[in-house]
Amino acid sequence: MKIAERLRAGVRTVTAAGTRQVAARLAKVLPPDATLALHGDLGAGKTTFVQGLARAWQIAGPVTSPTYTIFTLHRGDRLLLHLDGYRLEAPEQADGLLLEDFLVSPYCLAVEWPEKLGSRLPPDAWHLDFEIAADGSRSIRLRRG
What three-state secondary structure class fits 100? Predict the structure, then answer.
């Protein structure tokens, strides 16, 4: 079964390495200008997933949540823009930070806390839901925009 089909059905991981592996598999089939909207609570695996994308695209250096810088551009085999909307209190704040400029791609855009951006994401964004189970495992489910 292809990775996108598996993600639509839901994938369960029990380690951070497993989450990164799922992302690396998806990275191989993503269009060059894909937008990924990563939904889920703190600690659900969103940043870990972005680390898997980065590894698949030979991006060197640490990939951490850009909570305080809002975004980080990573360069490797592909460009990866990692954006974190957690600190935005209202979608209108994105206008003052010129984030709208980053929502149009020549790269893969991975957005943590996309709901904080309101309706600014492109309609064809790939929405991934991350959840933590009671046993500490994670589930990842894909639903396209």
Answer: helix
Q: Which residues contact 54 (CB under 8 A, 6 or more apart)?
A: 63, 74, 76, 80
CB 22 within 8 A of CB 49: yes
pTM of the shown model: 0.88
43-72 confidence digits (pLDDT tens): 999 999 999 999 999 999 899 988 767 788
Give dist(CA 108, CA 57) in Å, integer.
11
Domains of the chain, earliest start first? 3-144 (3.40.50.300)
Length in residues, the chain? 145
Instruction: Tally Cβ neighbours within 10 Å of residue 139.
Output: 16
Helix (H, G, I), strand (E, B) or coil at 61: coil
